Amino acid sequence: MTHRVALITGGSRGIGAAIALKLAQDGFDIAITYARNEKAAQKVVSEVEALGRKAVAVQADGGSTDGNIAAITKTHEAFGRLDALVCNAGIYPYGPIAQMTVTQIEEVLNLNLRAAMVETVEALKYMKTGGRLIYIGSAFGERAPFPGISLYAATKAGLIGFTKGVARDLGPQGITANVVEPGPIATDLNPEDGAAAAVIRKFTATESYGKVNDIARTVSFLASPDASYITGASILVDGGLVA
Ligand code: NDP
């Protein structure tokens, strides 16, 4: 495979960090963004470099237009190309809709949905045939199995529609767009031993949490040439939560 470059937003921890390492193993040079956690971001950079690939970490607030644009332009400045964009950074506001504030609504829309749109537009300035757009949605974009997740579910459902439209726009150029929809995955955002973990586990068919590498392996496949005929798809990796 020729030299390829992937950008993973929110790549300092959790699912994003696992995707960064998997794509590095696949031969991609890696750019990650992070919000605050420089130490964790630098650890991922070191781990990618230990795999023999190049890596940069970009501090960029995914909730702002400037941050979205900086993520793409700094990746291009570092590597001179962009082959795969993985929009992964996300937050999970939790609570009944009547208690949600306008600030919470704006924050989750900006990071979980609007960022994917702005970053896609910017990425397409550099992406060529064979390019890959991969959005990390959620099984909650398909189903809201318990109360308190309306804002989050709305942003993740929004990614599905966005992806279908983007796939239509870019199909003729040989660029694919897909959503990966995790179920409960053990991370800081959704700890396996957290207060809600026992309830969440029961919503899956497997009665278990998934691992970050379950998502990373799926992203790896979608980013590969073998997935060139998969586009506009929403791929559940959810232990059967939506079954
Ligand atoms: P984590 O909270 O473990 O990690 C979040 C990552 O996003 C970190 O790298 C963090 O950076 C970064 N980030 C947070 N806010 C911003 C911001 N404003 N700008 C840029 N980067 C930011 O999350 P997960 O790994 O669990 O989740 C990743 C994605 O997967 C999200 O989109 C989430 O909705 C989705 N998902 C997760 C599930 C789960 O069960 N874990 C289930 C379904 C979907 P920093 O280290 O600097 O804080």
What does this molecule look like?
It is a single chain. The chain is of the alpha/beta class and 243 residues long. The protein has a single domain, classed as Rossmann fold (3-Layer(aba) Sandwich), CATH 3.40.50.720. It is 42% helix and 15% strand. The chain has seven helices and seven strands; from the N terminus they run E-H-E-H-E-H-E-H-E-H-E-H-H-E. It has helices at residues 14-25, 38-50, 65-79, 102-123, 150-170, 197-203, 212-223; strands spanning 4-8, 28-34, 55-59, 84-87, 132-136, 176-182, 234-237. The chain has a seven-stranded parallel β-sheet with strand order 3-2-1-4-5-6-7, with helices on both faces. Helix 1 packs across helix 7. The longest helix has 22 residues, at 102-123. The chain is globular, with a radius of gyration of 17 Å. The termini are far apart. The mean pLDDT is 97. NADPH dihydro-nicotinamide-adenine-dinucleotide phosphate binds at residues 9-16, 33-37, 40, 61-63, 88-92, 111, 136, 138, 182, 184-185, 187-190.
